[in-house]
Structure formats: C-alpha cells, structure tokens
Design a protein that fits this description.
Blueprint (H helix, E strand, L loop, with lengths): L2 E3 L7 E2 L4 E2 L4 E8 L4 E2 L4 E11 L4 E2 L4 E3 L6 E3 L4 E2 L4 E3 L2 E2 L4 E2 L4 E2 L4 E2 L4 E2 L4 E2 L4 E2 L3 E4 L4 E5 L2 H24 L18 H4 L4
Parallel strand pairs: 1-4, 2-4, 3-5, 4-6, 5-7, 6-8, 6-9, 7-10, 8-11, 9-12, 10-13, 11-14, 12-15, 13-16, 14-17, 15-18, 16-19
Antiparallel strand pairs: 19-20
Protein name: Phenylacetic acid degradation protein PaaY
InterPro entries: Transf_Hexapept/Carb_Anhydrase, Trimer_LpxA-like_sf
C-alpha cells in the first residue's frame, strides 16, 4: 500500500502511467507525471512547497526531494536523479541528471542535458549552463558534455522508463523461496536495455 499523505487539504497526485514503489513516501503538494518512476524508500515532501516530476523523469531509491515555499521543486521531462541524491527547492531542466548522493540546494538550476556528478554539492542559487558536467563540493563546471555523453545519459534514463513499465506490469509482493530453483531464470538484456 502506497504511503501517500495529504497535508493542509493538499493531496499528492500520481499519473496512472507512473510507478511509485510502495515504500516511497509522498506528502502534500507532490505531482508525479506520466511515465515517471519513484524508487524504494524515496521521500518526496511537498509540505512546504510544490514538487513536480514531469513526464519520464525518475527519482531512485533513498532520494530525498523537499519543496520550499519560495519556488517549486521541479524535475523536468526525462530528468534523472540517482540513488541517495537530495534535491531541495531546485530545478532540474529537461534531460538533466543528478548523480548518486549528490545534493542540489535551493533555487539552483541544473541546465538542460547537464550532469551533476555523484557526491557533488550544488550551492543555493547556482545556475548551471546547459550540457555541463558539474563536479565537486562545492560544485563547479568541469567541462561541456559531448553528444556521446548526453546520449549515454539519455540511454540510462530510457532504462528507468522501461523499468516503470516493467514494474507496473510485473512487480508483485511475494513470499521468498526457500532455495533457488534448479532452472532459475535470469533477466534478459532485452527486458532491461532499451533499443539505442
């Protein structure tokens, strides 16, 4: 059962084509768009301000997304937020990525098709230009991204869009087996990897 809570009369919204793992928590003014993915143990707290996940975006396991009253927290179309990242009152523009355990602070803007590297700390108000690779704590622009870099990021996002559909179609709570089956199946590449 989903952990979804209204606050001050505002209830989260989940598009029927989105997948939100049952252990995720959504509070208040949270809007999950078409084909979006919210992973296990993610926390999206719209108790201070609005959080918007646009079409095809993903927030992976143990991420924290918190809205602020001053501005919406937005993950634009095809936005990609890696395991354990924290977004606080910021904007990820279309096709942007925030790596694992990175932090993006209030009123920062991650430009279109940019990548914030794992463990980076993006300070409040930082404006990251489009197609930038951002690293470090505090974060700085290291270089511009190549077409191959952007294509690689987009491929990873498509894997999560496919995962959204796989979860909606096949994920179910079950009892564990006592031992592996003799002919135990494996996930096939075509189930995981979208066409390039």
């Amino acid at each position: 059962m989903l952990k979804v809570y209204a606050i001050n009369g505002i209830t989260p919204v989940i598009d029927p084509t989105a997948y939100v793992h049952p252990t995720a928590v959504l509070i208040g003014d949270v809007i999950i768009g078409p084909g979006a993915y919210v992973g296990p143990l993610a926390s999206l707290r719209g108790d201070f301000g609005r959080i918007v996940m646009c079409e095809g975006s993903n927030v992976q396991d143990t991420c924290v997304v918190h809205g602020v009253a001053e501005n919406d927290t937005v993950i634009d179309v095809d936005g990609h937020v890696g395991h354990g990242a924290v977004l606080h009152g910021c904007t990820l523009q279309r096709n942007a990525m925030v790596g694992m355990n990175a932090v993006v602070m209030d009123q920062a803007v991650v430009g279109e098709s940019s990548i914030v590297a794992a463990m980076a700390f993006v300070k409040a108000g930082m404006q990251i230009p489009p197609r930038s690779l951002v690293v470090g704590a505090p974060a700085r622009v290291l270089r511009q991204l190549s077409d191959d870099d952007v294509a690689h990021k987009s491929y990873g996002t498509r894997q999560y869009q496919l995962l959204t559909r796989r979860c909606l179609q096949t994920m179910q709570a079950v009892e564990p087996l006592r031992q592996p089956e003799a002919d135990r199946p494996r996930l096939k590449a075509e189930q995981i990897n979208p066409a390039r």
